[in-house]
Amino acid sequence: MDTSRRTVLATAAAAGLTAAVAGTSYASSEGGGSMRFAKPTKELFGTLADGTKVHRWSLANGGTRLKVLSYGGIVQSLELPDRHGRYRNVSLGYDTLEAYAAGTTFFGALIGRYGNRIARGRFTLDGRTHQLSVNDGENSLHGGAKGFDTRVWDVEPFADASGVGLVLRYVSADGEMGYPGTLRVKVTYTLTARGDWRIDYAARTDKATVVNLTNHTYYNLAGEGSGDIYGHELSLKASRFTPTDSGLIPTGELAKVAGTPFDFRRAKTVGEDIRAAHPQLVTAKGYDHNWVLDKGITERPEHFATLRDPESGRTMRIATTEPGVQFYSGNFLDGTLTGPSGRTYRQGDGLCLETQHYPDSPNQPSFPSTVLRPGATYRSSTVHSFSAR
Questions:
Q1: Looking at the annotation, which residues are catalytic?
Q2: What is the pTM of this model?
Q3: SS (HEC) of 315-340
C-alpha cells in the first residue's frame, strides 16, 4: 500500500468509515469474517406540481456515497474522499426538486429513450418514418421534451453480496415522445465493496424501436462549486471521433484524432487545447462530441477513460460495454444556475462522460445500430472506479 492511500483510509476510518484496501479502490467494512451491508435509506425530497412525491435514496459502500432521486433517476450527490480523506460532492446539481423540474441541463439524470441527438427529430425504421419530440432547435435531444430525465421511476433498494444499490424501473408507453413500442426499462445502480459505482441498463419492447440509454452526471473532482475543470487530466482510449455540423449532428465521418485537439490518447488537461481555433471546437464552444472507442462494443465493461484532479488527487476510471462516449465540457453553463454549495455554475465548471452508441445512429447506416426488436433485450453496463493519490 502506498503512503497516500494509507493516509486516505486511516482518515476515513477515523470518521467511522472503516475501509480495507482492494486494488486501487475503496473496500467496504468487514466484521466477523463477513461483509456488512447498510441498506439504502429513503426520505421525501419534494412533491411535483401534480402531487407526485419524489424521494431521495442514500447509499454508501466501500468509501463511496451516493444520493439518488426517484425523479429522473438523478444522481443528486456523489461524495468521494480526497488524498487526505476529506469528502466532497463531485457532481453538479440542485438542492430542490423545483430546480430539477424547471432545469434543462440534465444534471445527473438517466437519459432515454435516446441519449444525445437525432437529426430533425425523425428516423425511418422498417419503412415507416417516426416524428419525435423536437427540443433542441430542429433536433431531438435526450429523448425529447419529456424524456426519462423527467419521469418518476419506481425504485427498489437492495443490499446483498454484489453490493448496495437501487433497481429503477419505468414503462415508456407506445408513442411516448414519438417513439414506437412499449418499452420496459430497468436500470440498476450498484455501489460495490470496492466503492465502484456500476450502472446496468436493460430494456425490452413489444415493437421495433431505437434505444440508447445513458447517465448525464456532470463531474468536478475538485468538488461541486469549486470552479472549472480545465485543470483536470483526461485520457481516452479513442483514435477517432465523430465531427458534427452546426447543429451538433454527426456528419457520418469517423475522423482521426491524431494531430487535433481531440487527441486524448495520452493524458492531458481538459483546458490544454480547448481554446484552439479548430472549427469543431468553435462550433460547440468547446468539447461536445462523440469519441469512437478503440475497443468497440464489448460483452463486459472495458476501461476507456481516466479523469484525475491533481489538486485533490481524486481519480475516476470508467469502463463500459458501449462503443462511444460523449465528452461534454460544460460549454453552455452560463452562470444563471446555482448548486447546493450556493455557488453559480459557469462555463466549464463540470464535464460529462456519457457512455453511448453514437448520436443520430438511426439515420447513419454506417454507425452501430441502436434498433431493438421484440424478443431481444437491450443491455449496457458502465462502471466508475474511484481512488485518491
A1: 216, 354
A2: 0.92
A3: EEEEEECCCEEEEECCCCCEEEEECC
pLDDT at 21: 27
Give the Cα separation of 78 and 90 in Å (integer). 6
Smallest CA-to-CA distance from 86 within 15, 20, 141 is with: 15
Please, are residues 225 and 116 in contact by the beta-carbon 8 Å criterion? no
- 236: Cβ contacts below 8 Å, ≥ 6 apart: 264, 265, 291, 293, 304, 305, 325, 327
User: What is the length of the chain?
Assistant: 389
**Listed residue (33, 12, 373, 335) closest to 206, CA to CA:** 373
Q: End-to-end alpha-carbon separation of the chain, Å? A: 11
- How far is Cα 193 from Cα 37, in angstroms, rounded to an integer? 9
Residue 64 CA neighbour count, 13 Å, CB half: 29
pLDDT digits (tens, 9 = 90+) for 32-74: 334 556 799 999 999 999 999 999 999 999 999 999 999 999 9
